[in-house]
Amino acid sequence: MKILVTGGAGxxxxxxxxxxxxxxxxxxxxxxxxxxxxxAVLYGKLExxxxxxxxxxxxxxxxxxxxxxxxxxxxxxVAESVENPLKYYRNNTxxxxxxxxxxxxxxxxxxxxxxxxxxxGEPENVPIKETESLNPINPYGKSKAFVENILRNMxxxxxxxxxSLRYFNVAGADPEGRIGESHNPETHLIPLILxxxxxxxxxIKIFGTDYPTPDGTAIRDYIHVExxxxxxxxxxxxxxxxxxxxxxxxxxxxxxxxxEVVEAAKxxxxxDFPVExxxxxPGDPAILVADNSKLVNNLNWKPKYxxxxxxxxxxxxxxxxxxx
Length: 324
Ligand code: UFG
Description:
- By secondary structure, the chain is an alpha/beta fold.
- The protein has two domains: 2-171 and 222-250, NAD(P)-binding Rossmann-like Domain (Rossmann fold); 189-220 and 253-321, UDP-galactose 4-epimerase, domain 1, CATH 3.90.25.10.
- The chain has helices at residues 11-22, 54-64, 78-83, 85-105, 139-158, 189-198, 225-240, 258-269, 293-299, 308-320; strands spanning 2-6, 26-31, 45-48, 68-71, 110-116, 161-167, 169-171, 204-207, 219-220, 222-224, 246-250, 256-257, 275-278, 287-288.
- The strands form four sheets. Strands 3-2-1-4-5-6-11 form a seven-stranded parallel sheet, sandwiched between helices. It has a three-stranded mixed sheet with strand order 12-9-14.
- The two termini are 29 Å apart.
- The mean pLDDT is 97.
- Bound molecules: uridine-5'-diphosphate-4-deoxy-4-fluoro-alpha-D-galactose.
- Residues 76, 78, 116-118, 140, 169, 187-189, 192, 204-207, 218, 220, 258, 281, 284, 288 line the site of uridine-5'-diphosphate-4-deoxy-4-fluoro-alpha-D-galactose (UFG).
């Protein structure tokens, strides 16, 4: 099949491009390279293009005539979204609207969307089911929730078919070490811990030790990027086989506290790096854990790497041998 991937040079997109390529699909990546890396695109062609450029987008989509689209291109930092909301509504919402309009012009009606657990805000029920109400508490989560609403309306109005995947905490790297996470600045827990282990940072700060959790630190559902990429493959197959529009949580269904992740990283790296306990980071919920039964049961998703030490091991291998 011919699959168009926006943001295919980014962290998650590049792992999906790799799996699509390995499965023999013809892939075209669109990326503006604002945060992505051209070396990360292991299969297919790369078209350097910003989704705000509707004319050029139209031309690319016309020439490629894809069977489905996977849309990763987005800005992803919660704190930045609070400081610069317009960037998020432009990049994540308005540019997605451009893309959707052009897809409609060319009759492309299968779409996989990168959504986020941030659409839930501070959920009332944990593990979180897809039926939990959407109460995003920052512009990042709102910019993604807007798109989910647009997709639902399109599906009802035009017979457009989409799958929205709500990612929990994505981590790890290609087990063969070819691609991995490379954000600048980095804000995510596991890469920051590993930069500390490597000696690039003075210490790792634990944001908050007074949460209502067993050890007082926040709990997250860390999912290996390879398993997340595979969720995109099963979602694609589902849509190509005539599946209806739907929304799925992507996580393992259980979490680790910040302290547990720090301890696991000490074990994996063999390095006793410095840790500092500080105040909570504003806007961080205590516990975010997915109920993943819908993805497992409806799409027959079979995760392979549900193991925090393995996740950290692949991320550590990448951190030590980064290609970009
Ligand atoms: N944390 C620290 N120290 C750090 C960095 C993070 O203690 O230096 C803690 C955070 O407070 C949080 C946990 O580690 O409790 C994980 O933090 P991350 O920044 O790695 O990830 P988040 O859970 O904040 O964010 C992730 C995604 C977002 C998405 C969000 C959904 O990266 O894109 O989940 O709520 F919006």
